[in-house]
Write a structure and sequence with these properties.
Blueprint: E1 2-3, H1 4-7, E2 13-17, E3 23-24, E4 26-28, E5 38-41, H2 54-59, E6 64-67, E7 79-83, H3 86-97, E8 106-111, H4 116-129, E9 134-137, E10 141-144, E11 147-150, H5 158-170, E12 175-179, H6 182-186, E13 197-200, H7 208-211, H8 214-226, E14 233-237, H9 243-246, E15 253-258, E16 265-273, E17 276-281, E18 284-288, H10 293-308, H11 313-321, E19 331-335, E20 338-343, H12 348-361, E21 368-374, H13 382-392, E22 396-401, H14 409-417, E23 428-430, H15 434-444, E24 450-454, E25 461-464, E26 467-470, H16 473-486
Parallel strand pairs: 4-5, 5-6, 6-7, 8-12, 8-13, 9-12, 13-14, 14-15, 15-16, 20-24, 21-22, 21-24, 22-23
Antiparallel strand pairs: 1-3, 2-7, 9-10, 10-11, 16-17, 17-18, 19-20, 25-26
Helix pairs in contact: 3-5, 4-10, 10-11, 12-13, 13-14, 15-16
The structure holds ligand UAG, adenosine-5'-triphosphate, 2,6-diaminopimelic acid and magnesium ion.
The site of adenosine-5'-triphosphate has 24 residues, from helix 4, helix 10 and helix 12.
Length: 487
């Protein structure tokens, strides 16, 4: 049992009614999970307002209500705590409830439009390989050392963040590498965390459905750095034109990395092929198994982070050199002389990078066939742009579905097709069924050709009308390439 006033430590309060020494055994922010003697935090959401569910939570046994607006009817047996910001209060309460695990585990948060999963995965793999026990919170999976805990979000909700960190601490983890999505920052899912450092990779077009304007999206990412404590580090990519803005108001120690300009951590690409990257980092030449210039940025930010955490530079580079990278990020499958690449590029910038990378490392003569779709109920403005890029940088493009969710798949494809100019229609196919689209790409390809399947990476489902149907790009392309090349 926890005592309310202890758990409210550092929460900005407006007023309270009732017993501040009240005891409770769990915090919930969803009335459907309320139980006897829980504390219910009413959070305003995008769909509904948690304040409308206060009665329901009390019916299910909640004895403590934390909210921004007090209800009209006050029940004498209930304690009400009015706070400035419920979402923020939830994060701070969760941290106190689990005894502030981030004071003992060094937590590094990575934000940016692209590269978060890759960066945190590399950091986790690196620290594990160097003998540390470390944790991971990522889009693909959460990990406590080697134990996998399935991930539902890029950044879990505030309670899950803290309870996972507590488990990491109990399991002996010294570090945790986590993604901080812009949604999570705005929704205060990381409030209450005491970060040891934060990393900014880049910012480009995404999630304008949620943030509305690019300025708001930049502000969301900047908030991570604004909220850092003085003893933390802020590591930013200076080649991104928003790198400096991110750390304008931070109290943390600013450190920079770049390929194109002078910075604290600097790298140069010596060679970039389908086999890997050769980089010069701090005067040392090292070979890496990851492909593409964008991965040079990810490797460099991992190197910078590890150095700022006090690790030996030589050991870091040697260990990183053997690491394969994150699942679904430029995964190469070679069957019968055909190369398929499965990649999670689901934004115009990521797709542009991946297509340019393939074009940079092509030897010439082969065809590049790209299969790509755009998610339903997500930023619509990226649809024509992604189709335009796929067509412009490939010999053939097959536009298809990617998690249509509650939208009509053909309507998403119509939005995509608007980005294809009349002269490019010849090399564009539209196939709603993703399996058929991949099969067609395999049928159109011959020895030496490259098939890029973009958008889903590690995802093993296709989400249609609230139901996730098993679907795995790598599995499907392997099946057809085997079938077609064996006959
Ligand atoms: C748009 C968005 O981010 N939504 C997240 C948000 O939900 P919401 O604001 O819509 O919540 P709501 O349904 O309006 O409910 C408001 C409050 O009322 C409560 N409630 C609701 C109903 C009820 O009966 N009783 C009750 O108490 C809810 O528990 C909630 O506290 O808060 C929830 C709890 O933390 C999240 O699960 C949910 O993620 C949804 C499922 C989602 O799809 N989010 C995506 C967009 C997301 O967060 N993506 C980023 C990564 C993006 C990227 O970079 O690629 C991520 O970090 O995963
Ligand atoms: N540093 C980078 N710059 C630009 N593009 C990148 C970078 N790193 C990876 N990418 C591309 O972006 C895709 C997504 O990468 P990753 O999963 O690491 O990003 P993310 O930020 O975690 O994405 P999400 O917001 O969906 O969690 C990759 O599949 C690759 O195509
Ligand atoms: N975390 C991102 C992933 C998008 C991946 C893509 N496959 C899609 O479904 O749009 C989101 O939920 O917007
Ligand atoms: Mg991610």
């Amino acid at each position: 049992m926890k005592v309310l006033k202890d758990i409210l430590y550092k929460v900005s309060l407006v007023s309270s009614i009732g017993d501040m020494d009240a005891r409770f055994k769990e915090i919930v922010f969803d009335s459907r999970q309320a139980s006897a003697s829980c504390a219910f935090v009413a959070v305003r959401g995008t769909q509904v307002d948690g304040h409308d569910y206060i009665d329901k939570a009390i019916e299910s046994g909640a004895k403590i209500i934390v909210c921004e607006d007090l209800p009209a009817e006050i029940i004498p047996s209930i304690t009400y705590v009015q706070v400035v910001n419920s979402a923020r209060a939830l994060g701070i309460m969760a941290a106190n409830f689990y005894d502030n695990p981030s004071r003992k585990v060094k937590v590094i948060a990575v934000t940016g439009t692209n590269g978060k999963t890759t960066t945190v995965t590399l950091l986790h793999q690196l620290f594990q390989a160097m003998g540390y026990t470390s944790g991971l919170l990522s889009t693909v999976e959460n990990k406590i050392s080697d134990e996998v805990i399935p991930s539902t979000h890029t950044t879990p909700d505030a309670l899950s963040v803290q309870s996972l960190l507590r488990k990491m601490l109990d399991a002996g983890c010294t570090h945790c590498f986590m993604e901080a999505s812009s949604h999570a920052i705005v929704q205060e899912r990381i409030a209450g965390l005491e970060l040891a450092g934060a990393v900014f990779s880049n910012i480009s077009h995404d999630h304008l459905d949620y943030h509305k304007t690019f300025d708001e999206y930049i502000k969301a990412k900047k908030k991570l750095f604004d909220d850092l404590p003085k003893d933390a580090f802020a590591l930013v990519n200076l080649d991104d034109k928003r790198g400096k803005v991110m750390v304008q108001n931070t109290k943390a120690t600013v450190q920079t990395y770049a390929l194109k300009t002078s910075a604290d951590f600097k790298a140069k690409i010596l060679s970039n092929t389908l086999e890997g990257l050769e980089l010069e980092i701090n005067g040392k030449l090292i070979w890496f198994r990851m492909i593409g210039a964008f991965n040079a940025y990810n490797i460099l930010s991992v190197f910078g982070t590890a150095s700022l955490l006090g690790e030996d530079e030589e050991e870091v580079l040697q260990t990183l050199s053997a690491i394969p990278g994150a699942r679904g990020r430029f995964d190469r499958i070679s069957i019968g002389g055909i190369t398929a690449i499965v990649d999670y590029a689901h934004t115009p910038d990521a797709l542009d990078n991946v297509l340019k990378t393939i074009n940079d490392v092509r030897t010439g003569g082969e065809q590049l066939i790209t299969v790509v779709g755009c998610g339903g109920n997500r930023d619509k403005t990226k649809r024509p742009e992604m189709a335009r890029l796929a067509v412009a940088f490939s010999d053939k493009a097959i536009l298809t579905s990617d998690n249509p969710r509650f939208e009509e798949p053909q309507a998403i494809l119509d939005d995509m097709q608007a980005g294809v100019g009349p002269s490019d229609l010849r090399k564009t196919l539209t196939i709603v069924d993703r399996r058929e689209a991949i099969k067609t790409a395999c049928m159109l390809s011959g020895r030496g050709d490259i098939i890029l399947i973009a958008g889903k990476g590690h995802e093993d489902y296709q989400e249609i009308k609230g139901v996730k149907h098993h679907f795995d790009d790598a599995e499907v392309v392997t099946e057809y390439l085997k079938q077609l090349t064996q006959n």
